[in-house]
Amino acid sequence: MAKAAQRSGSQRARAPRTGGTQGAAAAGNSAQRARAPANGPQGDGARGKGAQGKGAQQARPRRDGATPPPAAVPAGPPAWLRWSTFALAILGLGVSAYLTYTHYTESALAGCTETSGAINCGKVTTSSQSIVFGIPVAVLGLAFYVFLAAIMSPYAWRSGRREIAVARLVSLVVGIGFVLYLLYAELFQIGSICLYCTSVHVITFLLFVLTGLAAAIWGLAPGPTVPAGPASPARR
User: Does some domain include residue 143?
Assistant: First the structure.
C-alpha cells in the first residue's frame, strides 16, 4: 500500500508538468494565429510587387540598349506604276498589231490623211525607211511590244528578279534609241510623220521614263519586303 501511495503521488507530481507542456503548445499556436493576419497581407503585397516587377521588365527596353527590328513593309514600285506600264504596253501592242496588219494588207490607216502635207501616214509606212534589215518596222514594233507586255505584267513586276528588271530597262533603252532614229527619218528624210507611229513613239517614251524612275528609286531587283528602318545599335 505504501508503494501504491508513492506511485500515486509521483503521478500527481508529474501531472502539472504535462499540463504546462500542453499550455506552452497552446500558447505557441495562439502566437502563430496572431502572426498569420500580419503575414497574409505581406505575402499578398510581395506577390503584387513581383507582378509589377515583371510588368516593368516587359515595359523597359532591353538591357543591352538594342531595340527590336521594325516590322517589314512592302518593297518595289507601287501598284499604280506597275499597272500603268502594263496598260501602256498593251496599248502599244495594239497599235503595232494594227500597223502590221495594214502593212501586209496595203490598206489605208483609219483617220490618217494621205495628202502631201506634214501628216501623211501612207508616205511614211511605204517609204524605204519603213523596212530595216529587210524586216518591216511594224513587225519589229509588234515583236518589241509582245516582249514588253510580258515583262511589264504585274506578275513580272512582283517577281523581283534582277534579270527581268535588267531586261526591262535594257529593252527600253534600245527602244528609245530606235524611236529617235525613226523620228529623224520622218522629219529629215521622209518629210512627213505618221500619227500611229507617233503614238507608238510616245508610249515607248512614257514606258522608258516610268521604268527608269522605278530602277532609280527601287533598284533593279527589289525584294518582296524590306525593313521599315534600321534597328538601334546596342549600348556598350
Answer: yes
